[in-house]
Amino acid sequence: MILEYKINHTDWPYLMPMVQASVNHTAEPSLGNKAPVGLFTGLPCLTPLREFYLPDAGELKEVPEIDKIDEFLADLRLAFKKCTGPFRTSDLSNDCLTRNESVVRM
After folding, report:
1. C-alpha atoms less than 13 angstroms from C-alpha of 69 in its C-beta half-sphere
2. H runs (alpha helix) in 1-106
3. Which top-rank group of organisms is this from (predicted)?
4. Domain residue extents for the chain
5. What average pLDDT does the segment 54-82 reach?
6. 3-state class of 62 per DSSP?
């Protein structure tokens, strides 16, 4: 979330209530597809927060729609697959050399 919205990591305390509310109001398979707030308190399960406040921008920022989140996650999974594919040691050596690091060879 911090990367997606380009938020400074020091602003995490502002996001924590939204994350906590989302977790507490999301149905979990391990809880019989019930949300923790409904299961443990008996309170009605309201929809998770749809926006959060960015102090630097001085405005509310809307959380992306589910289809956009799914698209973002699909792109992220594809990027991981590309990263975990085969690589050449020469690529690693060149990358480490540009950062003035040593390469440990086994």
Report:
1. 6
2. 12-24, 36-41, 66-83, 89-98
3. Eukaryota
4. 9-98
5. 69
6. strand
